[in-house]
Amino acid sequence: MNEFSILCRVLGSLYYRQPQDPLLAPLFTLIKDGKLAASWPLEQDELLSRLQKNVDDDALASDYAALFTGPDCRVAPFRSAWVEGATEAEVRAFLSARGMPLAETPADHFGTLLLAASWLEDQSTEDESEAQETLFAEFLLPWCDTFLGKVEAHAATAFWRTLAQITREAIGAMWEELQEDETE
Fold it and tell me: 109 phi and psi, to 5 degrees?
């Protein structure tokens, strides 16, 4: 798994799954122990250190629920809530056409889109980045800054505010990488 895939998988999982999900336990252990930075491909040590200092299981779970779950959530995690005229079906069709297996959950969830970027990276050949570019350009970039800004503004914990900053920088770095690949 390469750096691009690692970034997308870690960030996508944190947004997609509730913090108390047992599948996230190893990731939260890495964060708590300060070991994520050792394998993190971007120079974000200060932000990762801040993330580590703000891991409080109960507060994270409570804040996640308030931010992202239910009809009265503070920050809707779905593209269709942020991009006028956007539908979940168009994201589902795009990912299905590329062979990505999808659950019954909405395909336009922010975490799902990051996980999809990881999946596309893992499935692509060395010189193929067109699907990833499309995913970023059409389905992620048009709304991610607004979404992450709202996460920063509405999060009750420093963990989610910090994660929004880490995610913004990571998405920017990945987009730059995709653009560099295109020009080569």
Answer: -70, 140
- Phi and psi, residue 78, nearest 5°: -110, 135
Give Dmax over CA atoms of the chain in angstroms: 47
Residue found under tokens 């122990």 = 33
Burial of 175 (0-12, 13-18, 19+ CB in 10 A): middle
Q: How far apart are CA 67 and CA 2, in angstroms?
A: 30
What separation in angstroms does the CA of 16 have from each of 58, 129, 181? 17, 24, 28
pLDDT digits (tens, 9 = 90+) for 58-87: 999 999 999 999 999 999 999 999 999 999
Q: What is the pLDDT of residues 8-24, one digit of tens each?
A: 999 999 999 999 999 99
Q: What are the backbone angles phi and psi of residue 119, rounded to the nearest 5°?
A: -60, -45
- Selection from 82, 136, 79, 141 nearest residue 108 by Cα: 79
Q: State the sign of the Cα–Cα–Cα–Cα dihedral 43, 44, 46, 52.
A: negative
Q: Which helix (H) or strand (E) holds 122?
A: helix 110-123
